């Protein structure tokens, strides 16, 4: 034994693992030896094609519901898409309203995860989630598990169940463009 197997999982990965277990998901998170902060790094570490990585892209939705006399809240919008595709911000805006960039502090505050480890589940605050239909090109995909070294295996059709019913939509730049 090298002792690594005795290390506790990072807090974010523990949160994701507990949710996966509670929902009866058959695959627990695994910790990679190398960081997988990008979809390409994750694909290389797992030996899968880039499109099989379910990358989480976070935007900041401008405005939103606010109480009487309170400023409008900015909401996190999480788009889960294939690692080989780019998100079309205009398509996302057509679905959820005006978007802005989400910096690292906003992402961490809203999701509870650092950029490079944002999981599709287990967020600190409720987020507006969208699942890109292009993930359904694959039988198996991999998503971040709350840490740059943590990932978990799933099927695209597991995402709506795991995320509490997030819709499957077309939000990527056309591959023919």
From TrEMBL:
<feature type="domain" description="YbaK/aminoacyl-tRNA synthetase-associated">
    <location>
        <begin position="34"/>
        <end position="159"/>
    </location>
</feature>
<dbReference type="InterPro" id="IPR036754">
    <property type="entry name" value="YbaK/aa-tRNA-synt-asso_dom_sf"/>
</dbReference>
<dbReference type="Pfam" id="PF04073">
    <property type="entry name" value="tRNA_edit"/>
</dbReference>
<dbReference type="InterPro" id="IPR007214">
    <property type="entry name" value="YbaK/aa-tRNA-synth-assoc-dom"/>
</dbReference>
<protein>
    <submittedName>
        <fullName>YbaK/EbsC family protein</fullName>
    </submittedName>
</protein>
<dbReference type="GO" id="GO:0002161">
    <property type="term" value="F:aminoacyl-tRNA deacylase activity"/>
</dbReference>
